[in-house]
UniProtKB/TrEMBL annotation:
This is FHA domain-containing protein. CDD domains: CAP_ED, FHA. Transmembrane segments: none annotated. It comes from Azospirillum brasilense. Residues 1-105 form the Cyclic nucleotide-binding domain. The lineage of its organism: Bacteria, Pseudomonadati, Pseudomonadota, Alphaproteobacteria, Rhodospirillales.
Length: 264
């Protein structure tokens, strides 16, 4: 039987590195999720009433990857790993959500592999006949533009919109000297300096079932899409993009890597 706890603003529910020995279902209140980055604690998102906290550490059998601290008074159910798995077996919507998350992670890897193969094909064609292969636009009637949403990012990528010409489209950080390159070179590589807010492969824009979405690629500090944090420390790794303007922040709240993704 899951036990209930009350927490007060400022209480720590767990610290980064602790054993993943339970899962929280937040009844009400708000919890901030923090990740240490150098000497700083970076806010990467919030978990609120009706949301899960700490489930992926239990499923993957690894320690906490972030610190969870209450922002307000509230209450939560605390489930042991077995109680959580029993809940999953009884709750079809919860099981479906977890399966979808794992499926999206697998599809993200497949998309990256497909992107590598497509890039290799284009390079081979260029070497063979000097002519690039045709690049498919995201949609015949659709344009995807990336624009800097902060002065800091504008100084790095310029003020002009960047048109996404092919999906999937990956945004990441330029490796520093001595650092291995990411598995797939990002379509947009941006300079960053320690302590890094941007990961080498940070987020990806792709299409799934006719909808455009942003996927966090296992980044260290996560991604915030229209106010919704995604990444390993949250219940989802993806967020849908809306028609019009979308705000995508790579590297947690307050990061300088804020993008405006316009769909039209």
């Amino acid at each position: 039987m899951a036990k209930s706890i009350q927490f007060k603003a400022g209480d720590l529910l767990f610290r980064r590195g602790d054993a993943s020995d339970c899962v929280f279902w937040v009844r009400h209140g708000e919890i901030e999720v923090l990740r240490e980055n150098g000497d700083n604690a970076i806010l990467i998102g919030h978990v609120r009433g009706g949301e899960w906290l700490g489930e992926m550490g239990v499923i993957e059998g690894r320690g906490r990857s972030a610190t969870a601290r209450a922002v307000s008074d509230g209450a939560a159910e605390v489930l042991t790993p077995q109680e959580f798995l029993d809940r999953v077996s009884r709750d079809a919507s919860l099981a479906r959500g977890l399966i979808q998350r794992l499926s999206i992670r697998l599809r993200t890897i497949e998309d990256k592999i497909a992107g590598d193969l497509l890039l290799s094909t284009r390079e081979a064609e260029l070497a063979e006949n000097g002519a690039p292969s045709s690049e498919a636009l995201p949609n015949d009637n659709e344009r995807i533009l990336l624009t800097a949403g902060s002065d800091s990012l504008r100084s790095r990528i310029g003020p002009s919109p960047i048109q996404v010409g092919q999906l999937p489209f990956v945004v990441g950080r330029l490796p520093i000297n001595g650092e291995a390159p990411p598995p797939r070179s990002p379509d947009l590589s941006i300079d960053d300096q320690p302590p890094f807010r941007l990961s080498r492969d940070h987020f990806m824009i792709s299409r799934s079932q006719g909808r455009l979405l942003v996927s966090d690629l296992g980044s260290t500090l996560g991604t915030v899409v229209n106010g919704q944090p995604i990444g390993h420390d949250f219940m989802r790794d993806t967020a849908l993009l809306n028609h019009g303007e979308n705000r995508v922040v790579a590297g947690g709240w307050g990061s300088p890597f804020e993008f405006i993704v316009s769909i039209g």
